[in-house]
């Protein structure tokens, strides 16, 4: 088993950085996915409405979160890397 979170994104050139979220009984889950991109020219608007799958390995198998990109925002930029909050899944 590979001990890495993997993310299937609809745009090339983005790397997984951080995942945070909330999950509760009888409520929809929400996830915020932060990704890194080395090309600031990536058209982030192409991500809106696109499906995303996050796979988290566990001791008993994998856990999958499927959703759609509902918000894209750039949170910081440096010469080498652009940090983007990519996903809020409802």
Automatic annotation (TrEMBL):
Gene3D superfamilies: 2.30.110.50. It holds the Pfam family Phage_GPD. This is Phage late control gene D protein (GPD). It comes from Kosakonia oryziphila.
């Amino acid at each position: 088993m590979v001990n890495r979170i993997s993310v299937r994104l609809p745009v090339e050139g983005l790397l997984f950085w951080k995942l945070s979220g909330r999950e509760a009984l009888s409520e929809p889950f929400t996830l915020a996915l932060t990704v890194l991109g080395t090309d600031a020219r990536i058209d982030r608007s192409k991500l809106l409405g696109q499906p995303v799958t996050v796979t988290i390995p566990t001791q008993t198998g994998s856990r999958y979160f499927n959703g759609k990109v509902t918000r894209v925002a750039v949170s910081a930029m440096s010469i080498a890397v652009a940090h983007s909050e990519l996903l809020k899944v409802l």
